[in-house]
């Protein structure tokens, strides 16, 4: 399987697991999201959208407000 196919498959598996509330996947995704909130280090671009979704979906108003403020201050349009 090519690297792109593997990444796409991983993305789909994570998406489904998060949609169903898989405890381990939710924990991993929210842990990565919380690490990002602490340091705003880059998240793997292939997984970034799902990690952000999980942080907002399973987080509180604090997480939503943080993402919104990051969105409004990012200067590079492709990072939005």
Helix content: over 70%
User: What fraction strand?
Assistant: under 5%
Spatial extent as radius of gyration:
13 Å
Helix count, per DSSP? 4
Tally of distinct domains: 1
Total number of beta strands: 0
Structural class: mainly alpha
Global mean pLDDT: 86
Summarize the biggest pleated sheet: none
Q: Which series of helices and strands comes N to C? A: HHHH
What is the distance, rounded to the nearest whole angstrom, between the alpha carbons of the first and last residues? Answer: 30 Å
Shape: globular
User: What are the segments in which pLDDT stays under 50 over at least 5 consecutive residues?
Assistant: none
Signal peptide: 1-21
Domain ERAP1-like C-terminal: 3-73
Organism: Magallana gigas
Protein name: ERAP1-like C-terminal domain-containing protein
Overview of the molecule:
This is ERAP1-like C-terminal domain-containing protein. Keywords: Signal. It comes from Magallana gigas (Pacific oyster). This protein has 80 residues and is an all-alpha fold. The protein has one domain. 71% of the residues lie in helices and 0% in strands. Helix 2 packs across helix 3. The protein is globular. It starts with a helix and ends in a 7-residue tail after the last helix. The mean pLDDT is 86.
């Amino acid at each position: 399987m090519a690297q792109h196919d593997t990444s796409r498959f991983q993305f789909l598996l994570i998406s489904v697991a998060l949609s169903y509330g898989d405890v381990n996947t939710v924990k991993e995704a929210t842990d990565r999201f919380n690490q990002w909130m602490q340091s705003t280090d880059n998240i793997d671009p292939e997984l970034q959208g799902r990690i952000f979704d999980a942080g907002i979906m399973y987080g509180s108003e604090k997480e939503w407000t943080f993402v919104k403020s990051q969105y409004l201050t990012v200067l590079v349009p492709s990072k939005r």
